[in-house]
TrEMBL record:
Organism: Stenomitos frigidus ULC18
Pfam families according to UniProt: CMAS (PF02353)
Key words, A-Z: Methyltransferase, Transferase
Annotated InterPro entries: CFA/CMAS, SAM-dependent_MTases_sf
Taxonomic lineage of the native organism: Bacteria, Bacillati, Cyanobacteriota, Cyanophyceae, Leptolyngbyales
Signal peptide, first to last residue: none
Highest rank taxon of the organism: Bacteria
Keyword Methyltransferase: yes
Name listed for the protein in its UniProt record: SAM-dependent methyltransferase
One GO MF term: methyltransferase activity
Keyword Transferase: yes
Example of a GO biological process term: methylation
Length: 377
């Protein structure tokens, strides 16, 4: 046996390096311990930054560009700080109410300015698609939704469920293109639902066309009287801890012959990933599924096609959001954040900088978006 062939066998016994799923119990335990150390270091950096240590963005970015490729390529197991990241949770989504408080129901004037709010493209909290030469964020978001329309095969007359519909951007844009499509949107965020209710009264909005129905509620409990021709879910599955249960629910809402399209943040490493910082401050129980996780869960839905969207798209989107956040300081600093604004500003900058930079590492080939087209199994 050559030494190259021996390595996969050897890494089973070695902590820290290689695929955590292959490790012996001792090497596994040691790797879990090392993951907690890596996480504690990241938390320490986050907390000194939040508490006032101003690190120049260029220094911050070069630290991430130096460390993340090593972790992605050689020690992916260290990117899963908690056991729950590696396993499925019991319900569908976890900590949903807390998530709304720390993330989605934050002052809307801040989020809307950061995400951008245009005539047809409402705030959209998921990546734009830049690779087709989009000149700005609005165009990148249009290109991204155009891609969803094509990949999901939307046709006029479809009744579509948007599972986690944000501010109604995707429904509004698709309704503007198809005069006979109907949409149902589901969202737990009260503030985002208020935005859509307002648009449903606005004659200039396609959400007021009578073809949009809104349900404010938790996807864990969602039930509808009718089944849908198509279901789409964009940027929501980082809040889903159990793919088996989620796909069972989606399958039960899909009419026979219908299609499901999900777009998620994904990592092309052997295990799923999370971080103590995002869990504590940004997305409680948020996780990034590995690229193979969705097709692996094929009991009620099966994946018939999938695409990897390079992480540079999300890098550009998050960098744009950070610039908008910075540029709007004057108008957003007096809003209510439940903490001193200077601290909130540093917390939010750390989030946008950290995620935005990680997506750019390894030329976007390890951390990007996964898109999956599914039908009944
Ligand atoms: C990252 S945003 C994406 C929103 C939208 N799909 C888009 O692309 O702009 C995730 C959305 O999922 C919603 N969400 C998260 N957890 C939920 C839950 N348990 N039940 C219902 N909606 C949820 C959030 O309120 C938010 O609107």
């Amino acid at each position: 046996m050559t030494s190259a062939n021996a390595f996969p066998t050897l890494q089973k016994y070695l902590p820290i390096t290689g695929d955590i799923n292959l490790k012996t119990p001792i090497a596994y335990k040691a790797t879990r311990g090392a993951a907690r150390v890596v996480d504690a270091l990241q938390m320490a950096l986050a907390e000194v930054y939040i508490n006032g240590l101003e690190i120049p963005d260029s220094v911050f970015r070069s630290m991430i560009h130096t460390s993340m490729p090593i972790l992605f390529k050689h020690s992916p197991g260290l990117l899963a700080p908690y056991d729950w990241v590696l396993e499925e949770s019991s319900g569908i989504a976890e900590s949903s109410r807390e998530l709304m408080k720390v993330q989605y129901d934050r002052p809307q004037a801040m989020l809307n300015r950061m995400l951008g709010d245009w005539d047809v493209i409402y705030p959209k909290y998921s990546t734009g698609f830049w690779q087709n030469g989009a000149a700005n964020l609005e165009e990148a978001q249009r290109h991204m939704i155009d891609q969803v329309i094509e990949r999901l095969g939307i046709t006029d007359g479809d009744h579509i469920l948007d599972f986690g519909c944000g501010w109604g951007c995707v429904p509004n844009y698709i309704l503007s293109k198809f005069p006979n499509v109907r949409f149902t949107g589901l969202n737990l965020s009260h503030e985002q639902c208020e935005y859509m209710r307002h648009k449903m009264q606005d004659p200039n909005s396609y959400l007021s066309s009578g073809r949009f129905t809104l349900y404010e509620g938790d996807l864990n409990e969602a039930q509808f009287d009718e089944k849908f021709d198509k279901i789409l879910s964009i940027g929501v599955f980082c809040h889903v801890g159990n793919l088996t249960n989620a796909f069972q629910k989606l399958a039960s809402l899909l009419r026979s012959g219908g299609k499901v399209f999900i777009h998620i943040i994904t990592v092309r490493i052997p295990n799923h990933m999370s971080s103590g910082f995002t869990h504590k401050y940004i997305f409680p129980h948020g996780r990034y599924w590995n690229y193979d996780a969705v097709p692996h869960h094929n009991r009620d839905l099966k994946t018939i096609d999938r695409w990897y969207m390079n992480g540079t798209n999300y890098h550009k989107t998050l960098t744009d959001w950070l610039e908008r956040f910075d540029a709007n300081q004057e108008s957003i600093q007096h809003l209510e954040y439940g903490m001193d604004y200077a601290k909130f500003r540093r917390l939010w900058r750390f989030y946008l900088l950290l995620l935005g930079t990680i997506f750019a590492t390894c030329d976007g080939e390890y951390n990007g978006n996964g898109q999956y087209l599914m039908v009944h199994a």
